[in-house]
Please model this.
Amino acid sequence: MKLILAIINNDDSAIAAASLTEAGFFVTKLSTTGGFLMVGNTTLLIGTEDKDVDVAIEIIKKQCTTKKKTVAPTSSFGSGLQNFSLPDEVTVSGATVFVLSVDKMEKM
Ligand code: 2BA
Model:
């Protein structure tokens, strides 16, 4: 079994979660914040069988698009504190996906 962790921009998260659910995946939606832009994004947790991982990734790929985002002066607190010059704009991927192996899953 695998756990897919998909970090998605908020604009695409609802349709991505709905499409995954419609395809039979079990999905948990977490409100998260990117460490660089310091703006909200969404992390989907999807526990699934190994054979279905690619299907889930294809659905995410279809629903999530690359976007250009303006970098606010308050972005990236760490770099800001060091007076690091930030770009005016960054390209944010449709989704950043991690696939983790799961030793055990139980529902009680
Ligand atoms: P943020 O950390 O807010 O990053 C937003 C975008 O800013 C990134 O898009 C990238 O284009 C740029 N960026 C991020 N860190 C940077 C840095 N140290 N220097 C220069 N530019 C930087 P994506 O790479 O598509 O990432 C979108 C969101 O996915 C990220 O939001 C973060 O929440 C997550 N993410 C991406 N890669 C990750 C990783 N390796 N580990 C954990 N989270 C990750």
Q: What stands out?
A: The radius of gyration is 16 Å. Residues 2-75+86-101 form a domain with the Alpha-Beta Plaits fold (CATH 3.30.70.120).
